[in-house]
Amino acid sequence: MYTVTECIENPLVVVKKIFDAYKGSTNVGIGNDYEVSENFKNVFATEAAIKMIPSINDICTDDIPSNTLVRFRCMIQNTGLGHEMYLSVFETFDSSGVKEEGSHTNNNVNSFSSNLLDSPTTVLDERYLYYCVSVPENNSNVIKKRSNDDDSIEDLDRLATKLNLFDDEQHHLENHNRRQLEKNYVASKFPFPNESHVSAIVKVYEKNDSLKVGDVMEIIGVLEHFTRRESGNNNDEFNPSNDFIDPSSLLKVPRLHAIFYRKLHSSSNPLISEVNLKNTTLEVQNTARDTRNSLIQYIASAFAGDLLVAEFVLLQLLSRIYNRRDGLTLGKFGINITNIPPSSQIDDKSVSSSSLPLSHTNPFTRNVAAILSSVLTKYHDLPLTLSTLNNVFFYPRCDGVLDSGVFQVSDGTFFLVDETVLKEGTLGDTGVRNMQTLTDILNTQKLNYVFPFNNFQFNIDIGLIIFSTAKSFFPVDCVIPLRPLATQETMPSLSEETLTEYQKYISILRYLDYSISESVSEFVQNEFVKQRQTAAKNGQSLMTPDDLFLQMNLARLTALSFGETELTTEIWKYTLNLDRVRRERL
């Protein structure tokens, strides 16, 4: 059994030992990883062991030696890099004789390239390339975290210099300058302009057709740095099969040779792991009613005490796409909150996308954003200024290399879209496409990837709350006018423990299974008929199937908000009353 320390500090030595032990008993061949993944999974079988692996989300890759085992919580941004051929088994010779090698990085082959033997035992295999970025998360928290990370990196730099880990001060300065230059190579691969992130080319040694754009996972693999040697040699490094890829823009990005990876919980909440999921779920359900009440109060504090709006916002945060059937997207719940006070000052100067921060300027919207960002793992502002619409791409596009767009995020990401900052002006081609992108997402939860001669649609699942003074010009599922009950006050300051409780509540309950018994289904149908009969008798407008569809969706979300997984007649009646009060405001 190999030790955790050995696997982290010298993973390739461990791989070589595994390969040597494996080849002695079994024939090697194409598509065989020689039980490398299995052995490493056994060593890192616990969360405690996993956490001992350096994370490139938290530590700059320049401060981690090449060929170190690292982990990376990431989202797949591009699956179009194709695959590359490599020698999985080869023979070399030196003064000690002939050696048979197994490779999990390029360096093994390159370092022995002059001594490589033409051997019948050589195995040519392929590995699959993915461009991955750190998970686009809560913008305010991530910016704060990245700021802390930058401080930590500076501390590490000073420590490294003190310990003479750098050759000299000039090397240290070059290292720092290179980091800044590399940001220009990868900025367009991240959804949010001008925000720090981590990226890597992940090389996977097994074919997995289920991996797709937007998937969130944790990669455990061997870190490999870009070197000047590589940039001058077109034959020994990055050469993906896709002829449209520009290698010069990707060579600077570190490589991660995946030993194994694991899909993360759908919420991407680091507080939740598959190991403790069952216990966490029971804990959240048992306290759901109390948490629900306090969370609504907390959200209402940003809406001048409007509890109805706060409750509908909570339901939106619990919504997700749970099925797609017959052209219907079941579970989508885009909401529009109207009567939002506009900002007294709107700065809408034309600026480039690279310098345009996606942050709210309307004070009212900023207060709500502060609440949302404190209870959500993945949240981002989206002010709909004219400059934002015309200069920031909402959709991914490819003209040789796939560049990201604002909405190329992982499922379960939420956006607060603010129309109140939109002034009169002219929309350019990008602006028109952005408006159509947002409309398509609200209608179908599909995102267009724009290519030179064709577009491709991908299913997504993101939450959208739209602020406007009057009714939004975007199609939404539910409209709720704001009725302030008090003057805007300072936002309450809650403990980390309470905010963690809210985050778990949302992350767990929105993914619970939900069902309706036959008896309750019959009850709902009868109630719908009675509602139509009563409306006809009183000369009121009749309930439509779309109204019933909305109420069914509201009932599902209401049940989940109480920690329930099955609809009851009591919850149905509660939902009808909630919707009635909302309609009275329209």
UniProtKB/TrEMBL annotation:
Q: By its UniProt entry, which Pfam families does this protein fall under?
A: MCM_bind
This entry carries the following GO cellular component terms, namely:
nucleus
Question: One biological-process term from Gene Ontology?
Answer: DNA-templated DNA replication
Domain of life (superkingdom): Eukaryota
Q: Which residues form the signal peptide?
A: none
Primary location: nucleus
Q: Which residues form a coiled coil?
A: none
Its localization reads:
Nucleus
- Protein species of origin: Ambispora gerdemannii
| Keyword Nucleus among record annotations | yes
Could you identify this protein by its name? 816_t:CDS:1
Keywords for this entry? Nucleus
Example GO molecular function: chromatin binding
